[in-house]
Design brief:
The chain has 2 domains: 237 residues, no CATH class; 79 residues, no CATH class. It starts with a helix and ends with a helix. Helix 1 packs antiparallel against helix 2, helix 1 packs across helix 3 and helix 3 runs parallel beside helix 7. The protein is α+β, with helices and mostly antiparallel strands. The longest helix has 44 residues. It is 60% helix and 18% strand. A 5-stranded antiparallel sheet has the order 1-2-3-4-5, with no helix packed on it.
Length: 346
């Protein structure tokens, strides 16, 4: 019996390592896209960007680990089933429930780890990640300059840019500024925007455009080849102090929040922590019925089930807010337990 248990555990560990690397790589790519988005918006500080990437990758472990447990259990039991090893174990007096025991104990270890991770580590990293984003934004307000979006972050000014290139050269810009009872319209074919740090201003160096000033009594228009337009930035761009959001509170801070949102966030973290125990049972049930040898297929199944999980979690949140009953937040757990029973009966 000990030999069989060791064999099952070793096979599971091999599948776990393979699945973990593949799933982690997917989330690393996602973190890279987030990093690229910050860089495109004008954030070029290397060390803060590296920290942002590292924090994003570590935070993803709260999802990567449960998905890896699911994919590994599907892979292990599907292989056993297709190779008829389950039948051999059964003829030897070893039922499937005995094989799953050491793996279930393994998932309990992950549950304890995720409980601490989700209630203490993740909130701290989420806050630090938002601090970095805020720092990059404050340090360089050029991050607000986005092509094909109406920019309204500056008081009494609306900006639209068709195309933004590297180093914040741009093509086809429209600026509307309201000043008292007057309105200024600016259009230019091209130009460049620069942040003047000491003056806390944005400088738009415009080329080949038109300046139109509309007052209560008249409208005047001027063509120009070169024109410098300044925007005084609000004082909020100088501050770096931010307060933690509810998803950035640790266990003890969250317990002090006496409202529905606090309770929902608290129970969501419990769900993320206990999913390895549920998913290892569900994965083994699916694997015994799947009888396929394709590791990529197992990861695909894990991805599909994760979509169902998050959809059910979202639905549970909506119902919880409507009814003010947090028990509905556990909807994905209820559904997955029912599915587990169904697969194990087969």
């Amino acid at each position: 019996m000990k030999i069989k248990t060791k064999y099952v555990f070793e096979e599971f560990f091999i599948n776990f390592c393979f699945s973990f690397l593949i799933i982690l790589f997917i989330f690393i790519v996602r973190s890279i896209f987030q990093l690229v988005d910050l860089i495109i918006k004008g954030s070029f500080s290397l060390f803060p960007l590296l920290k942002f990437f590292l924090f994003s990758t570590i935070i993803s472990f709260q999802i990567v680990i449960p998905l890896t447990v699911l994919a590994s259990s599907v892979s292990l039991f599907s292989t056993f089933s297709s190779d008829r090893e389950l039948n051999i174990f059964l003829f030897s007096g070893i039922p499937s429930s005995v094989l799953i025991k050491p793996l279930f104990l393994f998932s309990i270890i992950f549950t304890f780890f995720l409980f601490y991770f989700n209630f203490f580590t993740v909130p701290k990293l989420e806050f630090k990640r938002r601090e970095i984003t805020h720092f990059l934004k404050i340090k360089n307000p050029l991050s607000l300059i986005i092509e094909k979006e109406i920019i309204k972050e500056f008081p009494d000014i609306t900006i639209y840019i068709e195309k933004v290139y590297r180093r914040f050269y741009f093509k086809n810009i429209s600026i509307t500024k309201r000043e008292g009872g007057n309105t200024i319209f600016l259009k230019a074919e091209k130009g460049k925007v620069k942040y003047l740090v000491n003056e806390n201003k944005l400088l738009f160096s415009l080329e080949n455009g038109n300046l139109l000033v509309a007052t209560a009594d008249s409208i005047s228009s001027v063509e120009f080849k070169n024109y410098n337009f300044y925007i005084d930035l609000p004082e909020k761009f100088r501050t770096t102090e931010i307060k933690p959001q509810i998803y950035e509170l640790d266990f003890f801070q969250l317990k002090k929040v006496k409202n529905l949102e606090g309770e929902i966030e608290f129970h969501k973290r419990i769900i993320y922590s206990i999913t390895p125990m549920v998913l290892i049972l569900l994965g083994s049930g699916i694997g015994m019925n799947l009888k396929q040898k394709n590791k990529i297929l197992y990861i695909g199944i894990g991805g599909f089930i994760s979509i169902i999980f998050f959809e059910l979690l979202t639905l549970g949140e909506i119902i919880s807010r409507k009814t003010e009953k947090t028990l509905f937040i556990y909807l994905p757990i209820y559904v997955f337990i029912l599915l587990t029973k169904k697969f194990w009966k087969k």
